[in-house]
């Protein structure tokens, strides 16, 4: 009897959780290639920094991948796979030049970490190869995604509620719109440069 | 007569300024192949940064792991496995995946202050004058360079048109370079390479690929003896392209570097001098004798960290940068100047007799670099033996050698990644030049045996392939006439402000 009661409580709790975790999907249009879509805030809730450390590689005089989206507080590892010297720097985070930073120089095969505590878009540059371009988009919440090349996206496991969702694309103006998630939310964006 | 002299002087001056001025080249073909900016290899094109020097040393390719950087794969002229079949097959090579063609165009505007009026005699309405302002079309050049695989590099550049005319252009450099032949001889890496063709001598500071609008005066200096006193008439100048072979080794970005070239004698200043007769094979040269050019330099990279010191670029706190370095070098050119005279043979018959006058150019140079500041200079001494026709015109007797010396000192400061400030001092000391020119009414007629020139300049990269350059040449004092005591009448300086706009693509 006692065991049945516990099982019932567990099932009900899981059902309840499943019902409150929805998704946001849609399409970013008006631009070509990958974009980043993220939920700006979930009330006053804060989120612990992820332990995963994504890697941005410098290979063949390119930042790879070109666009990386991470949650605020994530540490990104910058790897140099080239047999030439590189460096990584950014002059601003979403236009805030006080948050500019230069990681210096490091040899092939080594990584240099940096923790991104401020949300926003960070244009990555290399001071010896000015054609090199990459972006890190720091989302304030764990609810973000890099769209596919057609602009389609889906953010899973978003709690039910009402949020502001923002779409970012390289060189375009950000676009935000309110979205209500009740199991499933929809938000399409049309960006312009 | 005066009119003709002035026209001649003007022509010489224009030649010096435009035809002999720096044929500066950068290589957009490499940008295309590697998908990278000009500034990967150049500070202020065509001036190379340390990476560009390493790229050049390696035979126009990335010094390490070149294939991984190529955005346009090369075309295979044979499967790599064909190497195993050699010598029973042609050794496989490659050609660039894109035609390795770059183009360049530049144009000039010049302003000459009021001193230009010294050439217009008062009251004269017919004499030519030096224009106060003048637009000039410059070069339209094509240049091609790359690597054929197996460490065989190539370079060809040609001026398709000069000063707006399509007939005045000519071949600049055209050569094949077999890089790192040392690997076949089990010598240290890059200690021996071979270059064959037509090329600028391995000068301490390139003239053909200089950032300056006007050439270094010492590089353009020919050694012409004092008329009626000396027989030296050697038109060779260090900036002349040479035809021959060159062995070289070492690196330009650190450590030792040497070159040893054997080149055609070129005392007439051109490849095919009028007195020459083409050989049946169609080759031209002043004589069978070959000139020799040798250079040795050592560059001390001054970073404390040994890893950084030995890398191609130094590891700065704010990213890779050029090394702080001191480069010391020396160079020598030795040859024989050839002149032919109408003389008498032992049977008292008229014949042509030949004077072969040994000459040499010897010099030293330094270059110091700290971050984006580069101070460099060169000193050169020129010496030509003189042979005077004897009284019977049957041979020659030694006369006083013709000598000159001089050099330059230049400071380049990259104030911003797109703004280069330049201050340059040129000096040439040749009493023969003064004696030959004094009172000749030639445009360039210096007072005294020493010609000093100070040339400040500034250059702006509008894009990394478009450049606006300005320089103001404070020229040597000169005069067109002298009084009975040899005192110059109305001495003046023909300072010139020159602007250039050039682009490569």
Domain module tally of chain A:
2
* Biggest sheet record of chain A: 4 strands, mixed
Q: How far is it from the N-terminal to the C-terminal residue of chain A, by CA?
A: 64 Å
Query: How large a portion of the residues of chain B is in β-strands, by DSSP E?
Result: over 45%
- CATH architectural grouping of chain B: Beta Barrel
Question: Would you identify the regions of chain B where 5 or more consecutive residues have pLDDT less than 50?
Answer: 1-25, 269-284
CATH superfamily of chain B: Porin
Q: What does this 3D model show about the protein?
A:
The complex is a heterodimer of chains A (193) and B (505). Chain A has one helix at 2-20, and strands at residues 21-29, 36-39, 55-58, 63-64, 67-71, 74-80, 86-90, 101-106, 111-116, 120-124, 134-139, 144-146, 152-159, 161-168, 175-181, 184-186, 189-190. Chain A contains one helix and 17 strands. Chain A is mainly β. Chain A is globular. Chain B contains five helices and 28 strands. In chain B, a hairpin with a 2-residue loop joins strand 22 and strand 23. Chain B has a 16-stranded antiparallel beta barrel with strand order 5-6-7-8-9-12-13-14-17-18-19-20-21-22-23-28. Chain B is mainly beta and 505 residues long. At the A-B interface, strand 7 and strand 8 of A face strand 16 of B.
In short:
The complex is a heterodimer of chains A (about 190) and B (about 500). With about 190 residues, chain A is mainly beta.
Short descriptors:
heterodimer; A: 193 residues; mainly beta; Immunoglobulin-like; 17 strands; 10% helix; B: 505 residues; Porin; two-stranded antiparallel ribbon; 46% strand; disordered N terminus
What is the strand and helix layout of this fold?
The complex is a heterodimer of chains A (193) and B (505).
Chain A lengths: L1 H19 E9 L6 E4 L15 E4 L4 E2 L2 E5 L2 E7 L5 E5 L10 E6 L4 E6 L3 E5 L9 E6 L4 E3 L5 E8 L1 E8 L6 E7 L2 E3 L2 E2 L3
Parallel strand pairs in A: 1-16, 1-17, 3-6, 5-11
Antiparallel strand pairs in A: 1-13, 2-12, 2-14, 3-4, 6-9, 7-8, 10-11, 14-15
Chain B lengths: L1 H18 L8 H7 L7 E3 L2 E2 L1 H8 L17 E2 L17 E2 L5 E11 L21 E15 L4 E11 L8 E8 L14 E8 L22 E2 L8 E2 L6 E10 L4 E10 L25 E12 L4 H5 L3 E3 L2 E3 L3 E20 L5 E21 L2 E17 L6 E21 L2 E11 L1 H7 L12 E14 L2 E8 L3 E2 L2 E2 L5 E2 L2 E2 L2 E9 L1
Antiparallel strand pairs in B: 1-2, 3-4, 5-6, 5-28, 6-7, 7-8, 8-9, 9-12, 10-11, 12-13, 13-14, 14-17, 15-16, 17-18, 18-19, 19-20, 20-21, 21-22, 22-23, 23-28, 24-27, 25-26
